Amino acid sequence: MGTLQTELIEKGLKRPLRQGIVKKNTSTSKQNKERFSRREIEDLMGCNRQVYKRVGGAVRNKR
């Protein structure tokens, strides 16, 4: 016969303390990280989009 705390845990009437729970290491992932080229990153950010400007009521390409 153990202590009152261990008896309650064994019977399922009480949850075990947090010290007994083993935490998984989630900080490191074993997936291969996807690598993007500079051009792909600029496309995602929208750096290479066309720029339009209103000139006399008409919308024209700025470049």
Describe what you observe in this structure.
With 63 residues, the protein is an alpha+beta fold. It has a domain at 37-63. The protein is built from two helices and two strands, in the order H-H-E-E. It has helices at residues 4-11, 38-45, and strands spanning 52-55, 58-61. The protein has a two-stranded antiparallel sheet. The longest helix has 8 residues, at 4-11. It is rod-shaped, with a radius of gyration of 30 Å.
Q: What's a quick, concise take on this entry?
A:
With 63 residues, this protein is an alpha+beta fold. It has helices at residues 4-11, 38-45, and strands spanning 52-55, 58-61. It is rod-shaped, with a radius of gyration of 30 Å.
* Number of helices in the DSSP assignment: 2
**Beta-strand percentage range:** 5-15%
Strand order in the sheet with the most strands: 1-2
Largest sheet: 2 strands, antiparallel
The H-and-E topology, N to C, reads as HHEE
Shape descriptor reads rod-shaped
- Radius of gyration computed on alpha carbons: 30 Å
Class from helix and strand fractions: alpha+beta
Give helix % range. 25-40%
What integer is the average pLDDT? 79
Report, as a whole number of angstroms, the end-to-end distance.
84 Å
Low-confidence stretches: none
Total strands: the figure is 2
**Oligomer description:** single chain
Q: Which key terms come to mind for this protein?
A:
13% strand; two-stranded antiparallel ribbon; alpha+beta; 2 helices
Question: How is the secondary structure organized here?
Answer:
Layout: H1 4-11, H2 38-45, E1 52-55, E2 58-61
Antiparallel strand pairs: 1-2
